[in-house]
Amino acid sequence: METTTNSYQRPEKKTPVVLVLLVILLAIAVAVLGYKYYTESQKLEDTAAEKEILEDVKSDLEKQLRDMVVEYDSLKTENDSINTLLTGEQDKIKKLLRFQASDAEKIKRFREELETLRKVMRSYIVQIDSLNTRNRLLTEENIQVRQQLTVAETQNVELSKEKEMLGTQVQLAKVLSAKSIVVEPMTKGDNVNNKVKKIAKIAVGFTIRENAVSDPGKKVIYLRLLNPDNVALANPTGDMFTYNGENVVYSAKRDMEFENKDIDIKIYWDKTEELVPGNYTAVLYAEGYEIGSASFILK
Question: Taking the domain 178-298, which CATH number applies?
Fold first, then answer.
């Protein structure tokens, strides 16, 4: 006997087409949004990177401009005209650095001006080098001229000294000289006596030496008799003569006519004051020079 088995099968559910389409559209939308987000992110990153690059370039150009201000300072010279021009270029740079614009505009302006400023600076450097070279040559010439002047002045000083020395030597050669000086204290009877109580006058005899270079003519010989205290015995009138720039008292004087040959002279001093025992000195002068002396003793 056959057994019949009846089995029940549920019908399969089918996914609605609309739902599938919605999923597909959603996926496409997500992909599109994701791509757009990625694209925008890349743009933002690129913009930030570009801005950073521009900022770096601008900062570098600004630094170059500031360095150029310092370089212009180093070019300052003693030439006022060039210094004025250099200051003008510095002012241009400072004005440019204050220029307000976008980074791109600044970079463009900075680059143009930098090239111009560098050309101007090179021209100034050439001018300054030329001036420095001329100044150096002039300085060397001045040093050489000063050295020549110094040599000439030294030579003139030496010549003047030589001339003065020769003049002094000639003048000294003209000075008269006395020799064979003899002092004779005498009494009223013209007897030689060195006792102070008996002396009435003192005679000093000497010879003026021959002198070929001395000027011939009238000469005045002055006699100073110095007592033990080195004080001159005065002449009756108290007259003086000049010696070493000072007026000094003389004891007696004698005029003579000099003919460049030996000539014997005697000068007398008449007693005008009391004498004391001791060492005395007779000193002779002519034309402002001392020409001889001799010592003697009175008792």
Answer: 2.60.40.10
CB of 64 within 8 A of CB of 113? Answer: no
Contact (CB, 8 A) for 260 and 216:
yes
Residue 222, number of CB atoms within 10 A of its CB: 25
CA 168-169-174 angle, to 5 degrees, is: 95
Delimit the domains of the chain by residue range: 18-174, 178-298
| Residue 285 bridge partners (DSSP) | 222, 290
Res 19 pLDDT > 90: no
Task: Find residue 255's DSSP bridge partners.
Answer: 220
Here the tokens at position 6 are 């009846």
Q: Which residues neighbour 202 within 8 Å (Cβ) at sequence distance 6 or greater?
A: 183, 184, 185, 186, 225, 268, 269, 271, 282
Please answer whether residues 94 and 66 qualify as being in contact, where contact means their C-beta atoms are separated by less than 8 angstroms. Answer: no
DSSP structure string for 85-120: HHHHHHHHHHHHHT--S-HHHHHHHHHHHHHHHHHH
CB environment 26-61: b (16+ within 10 A), e (fewer): eeeeeeeeeeeeeeeeeeeeeeeeeeeeeeebbeeb
Residue 15 has pLDDT above 60, yes or no: no
Helix 17-74, helix 80-97: angle, nearest 10: 160
| pLDDT surpasses 70 at 149 | yes
DSSP notation for 251-267: SEEEEEEE-SS-EEEEE
Over residues 115-127, the mean pLDDT reads 71
Length of the chain: 299
The C-alpha atoms of residue 42 and residue 277 are separated, in whole angstroms, by 136
Report whether 222 contacts 284 (CB < 8 A). Answer: yes
